Amino acid sequence: MKGVNAALGAAGLAAFLALGEAVPRLGLVKEAYFPPTSRIASALGDELSDTAFWQALGDTLTGWALGLAIAVCAGVVAGVLVSVVPYLRAVTASTIEFLRPIPSVALIPLAVLLYGTELRSVLLLVVYASFWQVLIQTLYGVQDVDPVAEETARSYGLGTWARVRHVLWPTALPYVMTGVRLAAAVALILAITAELVIGAPGLGRQIAVAQTSQAVPEMYALIVVAGLLGLIINVGARTVERWALAWHQSVRGEVAV
């Protein structure tokens, strides 16, 4: 079954690439706006041999990784504390519901005002957007803890942190991993968006430079790289999730199927 799915996926990709080659060649779209697949592939090859491209890729991955790491740590710690400390959830509920819907791109002027085009501007946007993904999933996970298991742990004399480790964390971990997977994708989107709009070093700025200099094939090549990067991050996040939840029934059932 996996072989059939892989073959169908490859066929779909081949058809998409062929369509991208044919549409401009047939004059349905101007090549100046949408170059054929072969020209984009050639531009991508040129980019791969350019040290500036690898520097930009490293800058993007640095902002993504640092921002995601900060957001995950802060989101998990804050989520557990808010759920465990009495009355803290009620006190922070309105604040969370007020801050969470604010679009991260709305903070771009603030980021530029504070840090200009430095890495810290990218981190501000990435952390803000990714933090809520992890925090909300952690809160949901803690709420899903079985009250009977919680009371049993109390009756056996387990302290607060022992209950967090042996009762709360195993229940919340699947939710946390879902939050991390969502945050990984959001972090990449915000990192490239910040680079594109603010002009911070990275793939986003390279795309903007290619666009303003009318290097259209190079622009599309960089967009393809951004898409491939998102695909790799998503696959990697799912792999980590399966590894971390190898004991969970959802992953065991997925493997069995």
State the end-to-end CA separation: 11 Å
* Overall 3D form: globular
Q: Which strand-content bin applies to the residues?
A: under 5%
Number of strands: 0
Seen as an oligomer or otherwise, the chain set is: single chain
Helix/strand order: HHHHHHHHHHH
Compute the average pLDDT: 87
How many helical elements? 11
Low-confidence stretches: none
Structural class: mainly alpha
Largest sheet composition = none
Percent range for helical residues? over 70%
Radius of gyration: 23 Å
Organism: Streptomyces coerulescens
Keywords: Cell membrane, Membrane, Transmembrane, Transmembrane helix, Transport
Protein name: ABC transporter permease
Transmembrane segments: 64-86, 172-199, 219-237
Task: Explain this structure.
There is one protein chain. The chain has helices spanning 2-25, 37-48, 51-84, 88-99, 108-115, 119-143, 147-155, 160-198, 203-212, 216-244, 249-256. With 257 residues, it is mostly helical. Helix 5 (108-115) crosses helix 6, helix 8 runs parallel beside helix 9 (203-212) and helix 9 packs antiparallel against helix 10 (216-244). The chain is globular and about 75 Å long.
Topology, please?
Layout lengths: L1 H24 L11 H12 L2 H34 L3 H12 L8 H8 L3 H25 L3 H9 L4 H39 L4 H10 L3 H29 L4 H8 L1
Helix pairs in contact: 2-10, 3-6, 3-8, 3-9, 5-6, 6-8, 8-9, 8-10, 9-10
